[in-house]
Amino acid sequence: MKDLQRPLKFEIASTRNVETAQCLRLLENFLNNEVGAQSAAPGVIQQLSGLSSSLAKSTKPQNKQSGQSDDSDDSGNDEN
């Protein structure tokens, strides 16, 4: 478990995405609490699931928005 904690701490410190940081902190807390891990597992899994889906949604629009904003500006100029 300790081998996993070092990379997690680095990833949490280096990530700029809030949802990713939240997922990693939950995972880190889960790994740190070995005794309560079995009882906490369903709640942690639900939280990670919710955060990962919001992370997936937040990363997709960012990529599309940059492309769409360029296309929208071009199409707007063409119409005028």
In summary, what is this structure?
With 80 residues, the protein is mainly alpha-helical.
Residue share in β-strands = under 5%
Gross morphology: flat
The sequence of SSEs as H and E is: HHH
Unreliable stretches: 61-66, 69-75
Domain module tally: 1
Biggest sheet character: none
Question: What's the gyration radius in Å?
Answer: 19 Å
The count of strands amounts to: 0
Secondary structure class reads mainly alpha
The overall average pLDDT, rounded, is: 64
Describe this structure in words.
With 80 residues, the protein is mainly α. It is flat and about 30 Å long. The termini are far apart. 89% of the residues lie in helices and 0% in strands. Helix 1 (2-14) runs antiparallel to helix 2 and helix 2 (18-32) runs antiparallel to helix 3 (37-79). It has one domain (2-79). Residues 70-80 have a biased composition (Acidic residues). Residues 51-80 are annotated as: Disordered. Residues 51-64 have a biased composition (Polar residues).
Chain-wise SSE layout:
Layout: H1 2-14, H2 18-32, H3 37-79
Helix pairs in contact: 1-2, 2-3
Notable traits:
3 helices; 89% helix; flat; 80 residues; mainly alpha
